[in-house]
Amino acid sequence: MATVGDVQVHEGHWIGGERVASPATFDDVSPIDERVIARIARGGADEAARAVRAAAKAFPAWARTSREERARLLHAIADGVEKRLEQLAIVETTDNGALLRSHLRGVMPRVAHNFRFFADWLLDLGHDDFETRGHRNHVSWDPAGVCALITPWNAPLMLATWKIAPALAAGDTVVLKPAEWSPLTASLLADITAEAGLPDGVFNVVQGYGEEAGAALVADPEVRRISFTGSVPTARHISRAAAANLTPLSLELGGKSPLVVFADGDLDLAVNLAVEQYDNAGQVCLAGTRLLVEEGVAAEFTERFVTRAATLRQGDPRDLATDLGPQIHREHFDRIDGFVRRAGEAGATALIGGGPNTDLGGLYYRPTLFTGAAADSEIVNEEVFGPVLTLQTFRTEEEAVRLANSTKFGLAATLVTGSPERAERVTGRLVAGTVWVNCFFVRDLRAPFGGARQSGVGREGGNWSFDFYCDVKNAVFAPGGWNG
Ligand code: NAD
Protein backbone atom coordinates (compact mmCIF):
# COMPACT_ATOMS: atom_id res chain seq x y z
CA MET A 1 0.00 0.00 0.00
CA ALA A 2 1.26 3.47 -0.85
CA THR A 3 0.06 6.63 0.87
CA VAL A 4 -0.40 9.51 -1.57
CA GLY A 5 -1.58 12.73 0.03
CA ASP A 6 -3.51 10.94 2.75
CA VAL A 7 -5.01 8.40 0.36
CA GLN A 8 -4.14 4.69 0.57
CA VAL A 9 -3.47 3.17 -2.86
CA HIS A 10 -2.90 -0.54 -3.55
CA GLU A 11 0.31 -1.17 -5.48
CA GLY A 12 -0.73 -4.58 -6.79
CA HIS A 13 -2.78 -5.75 -9.77
CA TRP A 14 -6.54 -6.30 -9.52
CA ILE A 15 -7.41 -9.68 -11.02
CA GLY A 16 -10.59 -11.70 -10.55
CA GLY A 17 -11.63 -9.54 -7.60
CA GLU A 18 -8.33 -9.97 -5.75
CA ARG A 19 -5.18 -7.97 -5.19
CA VAL A 20 -2.27 -9.79 -6.80
CA ALA A 21 1.43 -9.05 -6.31
CA SER A 22 4.33 -9.68 -8.72
CA PRO A 23 7.86 -10.81 -7.89
CA ALA A 24 9.19 -7.46 -9.17
CA THR A 25 8.05 -3.86 -8.77
CA PHE A 26 8.78 -0.57 -10.53
CA ASP A 27 9.07 2.90 -9.05
CA ASP A 28 6.26 5.36 -9.63
CA VAL A 29 7.70 8.89 -9.51
CA SER A 30 5.76 12.12 -8.93
CA PRO A 31 6.49 14.77 -11.57
CA ILE A 32 6.04 17.47 -8.91
CA ASP A 33 9.32 16.72 -7.14
CA GLU A 34 10.57 13.51 -8.81
CA ARG A 35 10.17 11.56 -5.58
CA VAL A 36 9.14 7.88 -5.57
CA ILE A 37 5.54 7.73 -4.37
CA ALA A 38 4.75 4.05 -4.91
CA ARG A 39 6.36 0.75 -5.85
CA ILE A 40 3.98 -0.82 -8.31
CA ALA A 41 3.69 -4.50 -9.19
CA ARG A 42 5.55 -5.13 -12.43
CA GLY A 43 3.27 -7.41 -14.40
CA GLY A 44 4.32 -9.55 -17.33
CA ALA A 45 3.04 -12.45 -19.38
CA ASP A 46 1.86 -14.43 -16.33
CA GLU A 47 -0.24 -11.64 -14.86
CA ALA A 48 -1.67 -10.67 -18.28
CA ALA A 49 -2.71 -14.28 -18.95
CA ARG A 50 -4.20 -14.63 -15.48
CA ALA A 51 -6.23 -11.44 -15.94
CA VAL A 52 -7.52 -12.48 -19.36
CA ARG A 53 -8.57 -15.86 -17.92
CA ALA A 54 -10.38 -14.11 -15.03
CA ALA A 55 -12.14 -11.79 -17.49
CA ALA A 56 -13.06 -14.69 -19.79
CA LYS A 57 -14.47 -16.65 -16.84
CA ALA A 58 -16.60 -13.68 -15.75
CA PHE A 59 -17.81 -12.94 -19.28
CA PRO A 60 -20.75 -15.34 -19.79
CA ALA A 61 -22.60 -14.25 -16.64
CA TRP A 62 -21.89 -10.55 -17.24
CA ALA A 63 -23.00 -10.82 -20.88
CA ARG A 64 -26.29 -12.37 -19.71
CA THR A 65 -26.84 -9.73 -17.01
CA SER A 66 -29.77 -7.54 -17.99
CA ARG A 67 -29.11 -4.13 -19.47
CA GLU A 68 -30.93 -2.54 -16.54
CA GLU A 69 -28.68 -4.25 -14.02
CA ARG A 70 -25.52 -3.36 -15.96
CA ALA A 71 -26.69 0.25 -16.13
CA ARG A 72 -27.44 0.25 -12.40
CA LEU A 73 -23.92 -0.96 -11.61
CA LEU A 74 -22.35 1.65 -13.89
CA HIS A 75 -24.28 4.36 -12.07
CA ALA A 76 -23.09 2.87 -8.76
CA ILE A 77 -19.49 3.17 -10.01
CA ALA A 78 -20.19 6.81 -10.97
CA ASP A 79 -21.52 7.38 -7.44
CA GLY A 80 -18.28 5.93 -6.06
CA VAL A 81 -16.21 8.22 -8.28
CA GLU A 82 -18.19 11.23 -7.08
CA LYS A 83 -17.84 10.17 -3.46
CA ARG A 84 -14.08 9.89 -3.83
CA LEU A 85 -13.66 12.81 -6.21
CA GLU A 86 -11.19 14.73 -4.06
CA GLN A 87 -9.10 11.63 -3.37
CA LEU A 88 -8.96 10.76 -7.06
CA ALA A 89 -8.05 14.35 -7.92
CA ILE A 90 -5.14 14.65 -5.50
CA VAL A 91 -3.79 11.20 -6.37
CA GLU A 92 -3.97 11.91 -10.11
CA THR A 93 -2.27 15.29 -9.68
CA THR A 94 0.52 13.82 -7.57
CA ASP A 95 0.96 10.98 -10.04
CA ASN A 96 0.90 12.81 -13.40
CA GLY A 97 1.40 16.48 -12.51
CA ALA A 98 -1.75 17.80 -14.20
CA LEU A 99 -3.55 20.63 -12.38
CA LEU A 100 -5.52 19.80 -9.25
CA ARG A 101 -7.91 22.60 -10.26
CA SER A 102 -8.73 20.79 -13.53
CA HIS A 103 -9.07 17.42 -11.86
CA LEU A 104 -11.51 18.76 -9.27
CA ARG A 105 -13.61 20.90 -11.57
CA GLY A 106 -13.52 19.17 -14.93
CA VAL A 107 -11.75 15.84 -15.23
CA MET A 108 -13.10 13.75 -12.33
CA PRO A 109 -16.71 14.89 -12.85
CA ARG A 110 -16.24 13.77 -16.45
CA VAL A 111 -14.98 10.38 -15.25
CA ALA A 112 -18.28 9.91 -13.41
CA HIS A 113 -20.15 11.19 -16.46
CA ASN A 114 -18.43 8.58 -18.67
CA PHE A 115 -20.14 5.84 -16.62
CA ARG A 116 -23.51 7.58 -16.43
CA PHE A 117 -23.56 8.44 -20.12
CA PHE A 118 -22.89 4.90 -21.38
CA ALA A 119 -25.27 3.40 -18.80
CA ASP A 120 -28.08 5.60 -20.12
CA TRP A 121 -27.11 5.16 -23.76
CA LEU A 122 -27.23 1.37 -23.32
CA LEU A 123 -30.87 1.51 -22.25
CA ASP A 124 -31.82 3.32 -25.47
CA LEU A 125 -29.57 1.32 -27.79
CA GLY A 126 -31.55 -0.23 -30.60
CA HIS A 127 -32.58 -0.22 -34.21
CA ASP A 128 -36.09 -0.39 -35.61
CA ASP A 129 -36.89 -3.80 -37.10
CA PHE A 130 -37.41 -3.80 -40.88
CA GLU A 131 -38.95 -6.15 -43.40
CA THR A 132 -37.58 -7.98 -46.39
CA ARG A 133 -40.37 -9.65 -48.40
CA GLY A 134 -42.32 -10.26 -45.23
CA HIS A 135 -39.26 -11.41 -43.27
CA ARG A 136 -38.45 -9.43 -40.12
CA ASN A 137 -34.88 -8.18 -39.67
CA HIS A 138 -33.79 -7.62 -36.11
CA VAL A 139 -30.45 -5.98 -35.29
CA SER A 140 -28.80 -6.58 -31.93
CA TRP A 141 -25.59 -5.49 -30.24
CA ASP A 142 -24.19 -8.63 -28.63
CA PRO A 143 -21.39 -8.57 -26.04
CA ALA A 144 -18.09 -9.46 -27.72
CA GLY A 145 -15.93 -10.84 -24.89
CA VAL A 146 -12.72 -9.75 -23.17
CA CYS A 147 -11.45 -6.26 -24.02
CA ALA A 148 -7.82 -5.24 -23.55
CA LEU A 149 -7.65 -1.53 -22.87
CA ILE A 150 -4.27 0.22 -23.03
CA THR A 151 -4.09 3.84 -21.95
CA PRO A 152 -1.60 6.74 -21.73
CA TRP A 153 -0.46 8.95 -18.85
CA ASN A 154 -1.66 12.40 -19.85
CA ALA A 155 -5.28 12.03 -18.66
CA PRO A 156 -5.15 8.58 -17.09
CA LEU A 157 -8.53 7.99 -15.49
CA MET A 158 -10.52 10.09 -17.93
CA LEU A 159 -9.17 8.25 -20.98
CA ALA A 160 -9.39 4.83 -19.32
CA THR A 161 -13.02 5.26 -18.28
CA TRP A 162 -13.92 6.53 -21.75
CA LYS A 163 -13.16 2.93 -22.81
CA ILE A 164 -14.09 0.99 -19.66
CA ALA A 165 -17.61 2.43 -19.40
CA PRO A 166 -18.83 1.51 -22.91
CA ALA A 167 -17.09 -1.89 -22.76
CA LEU A 168 -18.81 -2.79 -19.48
CA ALA A 169 -22.12 -1.34 -20.69
CA ALA A 170 -21.82 -3.49 -23.82
CA GLY A 171 -21.60 -6.61 -21.64
CA ASP A 172 -17.88 -7.14 -22.21
CA THR A 173 -15.33 -7.78 -19.50
CA VAL A 174 -12.18 -5.69 -19.24
CA VAL A 175 -8.48 -5.92 -18.59
CA LEU A 176 -6.95 -2.43 -18.25
CA LYS A 177 -3.22 -1.80 -18.56
CA PRO A 178 -2.65 1.78 -17.41
CA ALA A 179 0.47 3.74 -18.32
CA GLU A 180 3.47 3.00 -16.11
CA TRP A 181 4.09 6.72 -15.46
CA SER A 182 0.64 7.21 -13.88
CA PRO A 183 -0.71 3.90 -12.59
CA LEU A 184 -2.44 4.98 -9.38
CA THR A 185 -6.01 6.05 -10.17
CA ALA A 186 -6.63 2.78 -12.05
CA SER A 187 -5.94 1.04 -8.77
CA LEU A 188 -8.40 3.30 -6.93
CA LEU A 189 -10.98 2.63 -9.63
CA ALA A 190 -10.65 -1.10 -8.93
CA ASP A 191 -11.61 -0.42 -5.29
CA ILE A 192 -14.56 1.68 -6.47
CA THR A 193 -15.87 -1.06 -8.79
CA ALA A 194 -15.65 -3.59 -5.97
CA GLU A 195 -17.51 -1.29 -3.58
CA ALA A 196 -20.16 -0.74 -6.27
CA GLY A 197 -20.74 -4.51 -6.39
CA LEU A 198 -19.34 -5.25 -9.85
CA PRO A 199 -18.90 -9.05 -10.03
CA ASP A 200 -15.36 -10.40 -9.67
CA GLY A 201 -13.41 -10.60 -12.91
CA VAL A 202 -15.59 -8.16 -14.86
CA PHE A 203 -12.98 -5.42 -14.41
CA ASN A 204 -9.29 -6.20 -14.00
CA VAL A 205 -6.14 -4.11 -13.84
CA VAL A 206 -2.69 -5.33 -14.81
CA GLN A 207 0.11 -2.93 -13.97
CA GLY A 208 3.48 -2.88 -15.68
CA TYR A 209 5.52 -1.73 -18.63
CA GLY A 210 4.05 -1.59 -22.09
CA GLU A 211 6.67 -3.87 -23.60
CA GLU A 212 5.96 -6.52 -20.93
CA ALA A 213 2.41 -6.51 -19.53
CA GLY A 214 0.94 -4.51 -22.43
CA ALA A 215 2.53 -6.60 -25.17
CA ALA A 216 1.43 -9.88 -23.54
CA LEU A 217 -2.11 -8.64 -23.15
CA VAL A 218 -2.66 -7.53 -26.74
CA ALA A 219 -1.16 -10.78 -28.06
CA ASP A 220 -3.57 -12.97 -26.08
CA PRO A 221 -5.85 -14.92 -28.46
CA GLU A 222 -8.73 -14.82 -25.95
CA VAL A 223 -8.91 -11.02 -26.23
CA ARG A 224 -11.80 -10.01 -28.52
CA ARG A 225 -11.22 -6.24 -28.70
CA ILE A 226 -8.19 -3.98 -28.21
CA SER A 227 -8.72 -0.30 -27.61
CA PHE A 228 -5.53 1.73 -27.41
CA THR A 229 -4.82 5.40 -26.79
CA GLY A 230 -1.20 6.43 -27.12
CA SER A 231 1.58 7.08 -29.59
CA VAL A 232 1.96 6.05 -33.22
CA PRO A 233 5.05 3.82 -32.71
CA THR A 234 3.25 1.81 -29.99
CA ALA A 235 0.15 1.57 -32.20
CA ARG A 236 2.31 -0.15 -34.83
CA HIS A 237 3.46 -2.78 -32.30
CA ILE A 238 -0.09 -3.37 -31.12
CA SER A 239 -1.44 -3.57 -34.66
CA ARG A 240 1.10 -6.28 -35.49
CA ALA A 241 0.08 -8.27 -32.39
CA ALA A 242 -3.61 -7.82 -33.21
CA ALA A 243 -3.03 -8.97 -36.78
CA ALA A 244 -1.90 -12.40 -35.59
CA ASN A 245 -5.33 -13.06 -34.05
CA LEU A 246 -7.32 -10.66 -36.27
CA THR A 247 -8.46 -8.90 -33.11
CA PRO A 248 -10.50 -5.77 -33.91
CA LEU A 249 -8.65 -2.59 -32.93
CA SER A 250 -9.52 0.96 -32.02
CA LEU A 251 -6.55 3.33 -32.08
CA GLU A 252 -6.60 6.90 -30.72
CA LEU A 253 -3.21 8.39 -31.45
CA GLY A 254 -1.23 11.57 -31.62
CA GLY A 255 -1.73 14.84 -33.42
CA LYS A 256 -0.17 18.06 -34.66
CA SER A 257 -3.40 19.95 -34.99
CA PRO A 258 -3.75 23.41 -36.57
CA LEU A 259 -5.40 26.45 -35.01
CA VAL A 260 -6.29 28.64 -37.99
CA VAL A 261 -6.90 32.34 -37.39
CA PHE A 262 -8.54 34.31 -40.21
CA ALA A 263 -8.33 38.12 -40.27
CA ASP A 264 -12.15 38.30 -40.16
CA GLY A 265 -12.19 36.49 -36.79
CA ASP A 266 -12.31 37.76 -33.21
CA LEU A 267 -8.63 38.32 -32.37
CA ASP A 268 -9.13 38.27 -28.58
CA LEU A 269 -10.87 34.92 -28.87
CA ALA A 270 -8.07 33.66 -31.11
CA VAL A 271 -5.41 34.69 -28.58
CA ASN A 272 -7.30 33.06 -25.69
CA LEU A 273 -7.75 29.84 -27.64
CA ALA A 274 -4.09 29.85 -28.63
CA VAL A 275 -2.90 30.26 -25.04
CA GLU A 276 -5.27 27.45 -24.02
CA GLN A 277 -3.12 25.09 -26.07
CA TYR A 278 -0.61 25.13 -23.17
CA ASP A 279 -3.17 23.34 -20.97
CA ASN A 280 -1.84 20.29 -19.16
CA ALA A 281 1.65 21.66 -19.90
CA GLY A 282 0.97 20.96 -23.57
CA GLN A 283 0.44 17.25 -22.97
CA VAL A 284 -2.90 17.06 -24.78
CA CYS A 285 -3.37 14.97 -27.92
CA LEU A 286 -5.93 17.42 -29.35
CA ALA A 287 -3.82 20.54 -28.78
CA GLY A 288 -3.69 22.97 -31.68
CA THR A 289 0.06 23.31 -31.60
CA ARG A 290 0.40 24.84 -35.08
CA LEU A 291 -0.88 28.41 -35.03
CA LEU A 292 -1.70 29.41 -38.62
CA VAL A 293 -2.46 33.12 -38.74
CA GLU A 294 -3.53 35.28 -41.69
CA GLU A 295 -0.69 37.62 -42.59
CA GLY A 296 -2.62 40.88 -42.12
CA VAL A 297 -3.27 40.23 -38.41
CA ALA A 298 -0.15 38.21 -37.58
CA ALA A 299 1.82 41.05 -35.94
CA GLU A 300 -1.09 42.13 -33.77
CA PHE A 301 -1.94 38.51 -32.87
CA THR A 302 1.67 37.78 -31.90
CA GLU A 303 1.96 40.86 -29.72
CA ARG A 304 -1.26 40.06 -27.85
CA PHE A 305 -0.32 36.37 -27.54
CA VAL A 306 3.05 37.17 -25.98
CA THR A 307 1.43 39.56 -23.48
CA ARG A 308 -1.26 37.05 -22.58
CA ALA A 309 1.15 34.08 -22.27
CA ALA A 310 3.31 36.12 -19.85
CA THR A 311 0.41 36.05 -17.36
CA LEU A 312 0.46 32.24 -17.08
CA ARG A 313 1.51 31.08 -13.64
CA GLN A 314 3.82 28.10 -13.65
CA GLY A 315 4.32 26.05 -10.51
CA ASP A 316 3.07 23.32 -8.21
CA PRO A 317 -0.05 21.79 -9.80
CA ARG A 318 -1.62 21.33 -6.35
CA ASP A 319 -1.83 25.12 -6.00
CA LEU A 320 -5.25 26.10 -7.36
CA ALA A 321 -3.81 29.33 -8.81
CA THR A 322 -1.32 27.47 -11.02
CA ASP A 323 -1.89 27.47 -14.79
CA LEU A 324 0.99 25.29 -15.91
CA GLY A 325 2.45 22.34 -14.01
CA PRO A 326 5.47 20.10 -14.68
CA GLN A 327 6.03 17.66 -17.52
CA ILE A 328 5.24 14.05 -16.65
CA HIS A 329 8.73 12.51 -16.43
CA ARG A 330 12.43 13.30 -16.83
CA GLU A 331 12.61 11.18 -20.01
CA HIS A 332 9.70 13.10 -21.57
CA PHE A 333 11.15 16.45 -20.41
CA ASP A 334 14.44 15.65 -22.15
CA ARG A 335 12.56 14.62 -25.29
CA ILE A 336 10.75 17.98 -25.37
CA ASP A 337 14.02 19.82 -24.79
CA GLY A 338 15.58 17.90 -27.69
CA PHE A 339 12.82 19.10 -30.04
CA VAL A 340 13.29 22.68 -28.85
CA ARG A 341 17.08 22.64 -29.22
CA ARG A 342 16.91 21.13 -32.71
CA ALA A 343 14.29 23.71 -33.76
CA GLY A 344 16.66 26.50 -32.68
CA GLU A 345 19.57 24.85 -34.52
CA ALA A 346 17.39 24.59 -37.65
CA GLY A 347 16.82 28.36 -37.62
CA ALA A 348 13.50 28.86 -35.80
CA THR A 349 13.21 31.69 -33.27
CA ALA A 350 11.75 31.18 -29.80
CA LEU A 351 9.64 34.30 -29.23
CA ILE A 352 8.86 33.11 -25.71
CA GLY A 353 10.30 30.28 -23.63
CA GLY A 354 12.74 28.03 -25.43
CA GLY A 355 14.00 26.00 -22.48
CA PRO A 356 13.47 24.68 -18.96
CA ASN A 357 12.18 27.00 -16.26
CA THR A 358 15.42 27.32 -14.31
CA ASP A 359 13.75 29.32 -11.50
CA LEU A 360 11.54 26.35 -10.65
CA GLY A 361 13.96 23.58 -11.67
CA GLY A 362 12.69 20.00 -11.77
CA LEU A 363 10.42 19.14 -14.66
CA TYR A 364 9.04 22.62 -15.36
CA TYR A 365 9.42 23.70 -18.98
CA ARG A 366 8.74 27.25 -20.16
CA PRO A 367 5.79 27.74 -22.51
CA THR A 368 7.41 28.22 -25.89
CA LEU A 369 6.40 29.77 -29.20
CA PHE A 370 8.52 29.38 -32.33
CA THR A 371 8.34 31.56 -35.41
CA GLY A 372 10.30 31.28 -38.59
CA ALA A 373 10.34 27.47 -38.68
CA ALA A 374 10.45 25.97 -42.16
CA ALA A 375 7.21 24.28 -43.29
CA ASP A 376 8.99 20.94 -43.64
CA SER A 377 10.94 21.21 -40.36
CA GLU A 378 10.68 18.72 -37.52
CA ILE A 379 9.13 21.22 -35.09
CA VAL A 380 6.26 21.95 -37.49
CA ASN A 381 5.55 18.33 -38.36
CA GLU A 382 6.27 16.10 -35.35
CA GLU A 383 4.20 15.85 -32.17
CA VAL A 384 6.20 17.35 -29.27
CA PHE A 385 3.54 16.69 -26.60
CA GLY A 386 4.84 19.58 -24.51
CA PRO A 387 4.22 23.34 -24.14
CA VAL A 388 5.64 24.15 -27.55
CA LEU A 389 3.73 25.95 -30.32
CA THR A 390 4.77 27.16 -33.75
CA LEU A 391 3.40 30.15 -35.65
CA GLN A 392 3.16 30.27 -39.44
CA THR A 393 1.37 32.83 -41.58
CA PHE A 394 -0.79 32.44 -44.69
CA ARG A 395 -2.19 34.81 -47.30
CA THR A 396 -5.23 33.01 -48.70
CA GLU A 397 -7.88 30.54 -47.57
CA GLU A 398 -6.43 28.06 -50.05
CA GLU A 399 -3.01 28.33 -48.42
CA ALA A 400 -4.53 28.03 -44.94
CA VAL A 401 -6.23 24.74 -45.88
CA ARG A 402 -3.07 23.43 -47.53
CA LEU A 403 -0.95 24.20 -44.43
CA ALA A 404 -3.61 22.85 -42.06
CA ASN A 405 -3.69 19.52 -43.92
CA SER A 406 0.07 19.27 -44.45
CA THR A 407 1.12 16.83 -41.70
CA LYS A 408 0.77 13.06 -41.41
CA PHE A 409 -1.80 13.59 -38.61
CA GLY A 410 -5.52 14.44 -38.65
CA LEU A 411 -6.82 14.46 -35.11
CA ALA A 412 -8.43 17.90 -34.72
CA ALA A 413 -8.50 21.45 -36.08
CA THR A 414 -9.69 24.77 -34.70
CA LEU A 415 -10.84 27.73 -36.80
CA VAL A 416 -11.36 31.32 -35.80
CA THR A 417 -13.38 33.23 -38.34
CA GLY A 418 -16.21 35.77 -38.42
CA SER A 419 -17.64 34.33 -41.62
CA PRO A 420 -20.19 31.48 -41.41
CA GLU A 421 -19.69 30.72 -45.12
CA ARG A 422 -15.93 30.43 -44.67
CA ALA A 423 -16.45 28.27 -41.57
CA GLU A 424 -18.60 25.81 -43.59
CA ARG A 425 -16.26 25.81 -46.57
CA VAL A 426 -13.02 25.33 -44.64
CA THR A 427 -14.49 22.79 -42.20
CA GLY A 428 -15.51 20.67 -45.18
CA ARG A 429 -11.96 20.65 -46.55
CA LEU A 430 -10.04 19.91 -43.34
CA VAL A 431 -8.66 16.44 -42.67
CA ALA A 432 -9.53 15.95 -38.99
CA GLY A 433 -11.66 13.80 -36.70
CA THR A 434 -12.95 16.88 -34.88
CA VAL A 435 -13.20 20.52 -36.01
CA TRP A 436 -13.98 23.36 -33.61
CA VAL A 437 -15.17 26.68 -34.98
CA ASN A 438 -14.63 29.68 -32.68
CA CYS A 439 -14.31 27.32 -29.71
CA PHE A 440 -12.03 24.56 -28.42
CA PHE A 441 -12.37 21.29 -26.52
CA VAL A 442 -16.17 21.19 -26.47
CA ARG A 443 -16.72 17.44 -26.15
CA ASP A 444 -20.00 15.53 -26.16
CA LEU A 445 -19.98 11.78 -25.59
CA ARG A 446 -22.66 11.35 -28.26
CA ALA A 447 -20.19 12.57 -30.89
CA PRO A 448 -17.78 10.32 -32.79
CA PHE A 449 -14.21 10.74 -31.57
CA GLY A 450 -11.07 9.63 -33.37
CA GLY A 451 -8.48 10.69 -35.88
CA ALA A 452 -7.80 10.67 -39.59
CA ARG A 453 -4.49 9.60 -41.17
CA GLN A 454 -1.95 8.54 -38.49
CA SER A 455 -4.05 10.03 -35.69
CA GLY A 456 -6.09 6.90 -35.40
CA VAL A 457 -8.19 4.06 -36.65
CA GLY A 458 -11.91 3.88 -35.88
CA ARG A 459 -14.24 6.07 -33.85
CA GLU A 460 -15.60 5.81 -30.32
CA GLY A 461 -18.46 7.74 -28.68
CA GLY A 462 -22.25 7.14 -28.63
CA ASN A 463 -23.26 4.37 -31.04
CA TRP A 464 -19.74 4.18 -32.44
CA SER A 465 -18.55 2.81 -29.08
CA PHE A 466 -21.19 0.10 -29.07
CA ASP A 467 -20.46 -0.77 -32.70
CA PHE A 468 -16.85 -1.36 -31.67
CA TYR A 469 -17.33 -3.13 -28.35
CA CYS A 470 -20.16 -5.40 -29.61
CA ASP A 471 -20.65 -8.10 -32.19
CA VAL A 472 -23.45 -6.48 -34.16
CA LYS A 473 -25.87 -9.14 -35.38
CA ASN A 474 -28.78 -9.16 -37.83
CA ALA A 475 -31.36 -11.92 -37.31
CA VAL A 476 -33.92 -12.58 -40.07
CA PHE A 477 -37.26 -14.18 -39.07
CA ALA A 478 -39.37 -15.90 -41.73
CA PRO A 479 -42.99 -14.80 -42.03
CA GLY A 480 -45.85 -16.85 -40.72
CA GLY A 481 -46.46 -18.96 -37.67
CA TRP A 482 -43.87 -21.08 -35.91
CA ASN A 483 -45.50 -24.47 -36.52
CA GLY A 484 -45.37 -24.42 -40.28
P1 NAD B 1 2.72 5.33 -25.44
O1 NAD B 1 2.32 4.84 -26.77
O2 NAD B 1 4.15 5.40 -25.09
O3 NAD B 1 2.04 4.46 -24.27
C1 NAD B 1 0.65 4.28 -24.19
C2 NAD B 1 0.36 2.97 -23.50
O4 NAD B 1 0.83 1.90 -24.31
C3 NAD B 1 1.03 2.80 -22.14
O5 NAD B 1 0.13 2.17 -21.25
C4 NAD B 1 2.18 1.89 -22.45
O6 NAD B 1 2.61 1.13 -21.34
C5 NAD B 1 1.58 1.00 -23.50
N1 NAD B 1 2.53 0.28 -24.37
C6 NAD B 1 3.78 0.69 -24.74
N2 NAD B 1 4.34 -0.25 -25.54
C7 NAD B 1 3.43 -1.25 -25.68
C8 NAD B 1 3.42 -2.48 -26.40
N3 NAD B 1 4.46 -2.87 -27.13
N4 NAD B 1 2.32 -3.24 -26.34
C9 NAD B 1 1.25 -2.87 -25.61
N5 NAD B 1 1.20 -1.71 -24.89
C10 NAD B 1 2.29 -0.91 -24.94
O7 NAD B 1 2.03 6.75 -25.28
P2 NAD B 1 2.17 7.78 -24.09
O8 NAD B 1 3.52 8.40 -24.15
O9 NAD B 1 1.73 7.13 -22.83
O10 NAD B 1 1.05 8.85 -24.49
C11 NAD B 1 1.28 9.93 -25.31
C12 NAD B 1 0.70 9.70 -26.68
O11 NAD B 1 -0.70 9.40 -26.57
C13 NAD B 1 0.77 10.93 -27.55
O12 NAD B 1 1.14 10.56 -28.85
C14 NAD B 1 -0.66 11.47 -27.52
O13 NAD B 1 -1.02 12.29 -28.61
C15 NAD B 1 -1.43 10.21 -27.49
N6 NAD B 1 -2.80 10.45 -27.00
C16 NAD B 1 -3.84 10.33 -27.87
C17 NAD B 1 -5.13 10.60 -27.44
C18 NAD B 1 -6.32 10.47 -28.37
O14 NAD B 1 -7.44 10.39 -27.87
N7 NAD B 1 -6.13 10.46 -29.67
C19 NAD B 1 -5.35 10.96 -26.11
C20 NAD B 1 -4.27 11.08 -25.26
C21 NAD B 1 -2.99 10.80 -25.70
Model description:
The protein has helices spanning about 45-65, 65-85, 85-95, 100-125, 155-170, 185-195, 210-220, 230-245, 265-275, 295-310, 330-345, 380, 395-405, 420-430, 460-470, and strands at about 1-5, 5-10, 15, 20, 25-30, 35-40, 130, 135-145, 145-150, 175, 205, 225-230, 250, 260, 290-295, 350, 370, 390-395, 410, 410-415, 435, 450-455, 455, 470-475. The chain folds into two domains: about 1-255 and about 450-475, Aldehyde Dehydrogenase, Chain A, domain 1 (3-Layer(aba) Sandwich), CATH 3.40.605; about 260-435, Aldehyde Dehydrogenase, Chain A, domain 2 (3-Layer(aba) Sandwich), CATH 3.40.309. The protein contains 15 helices and 24 strands. It has a seven-stranded mixed β-sheet with strand order 16-17-18-15-14-20-21, sandwiched between helices. It is about 40% helix and about 20% strand. The chain is α/β, with parallel strands linked by helices. Nicotinamide-adenine-dinucleotide (NAD) binds next to α7 and α8.
List keywords for this structure.
six-stranded mixed β-sheet, binds nicotinamide-adenine-dinucleotide, 2 domains, Aldehyde Dehydrogenase, Chain A, domain 2, seven-stranded mixed β-sheet, 484 residues, 15 helices, Aldehyde Dehydrogenase, Chain A, domain 1, 40% helix, alpha/beta
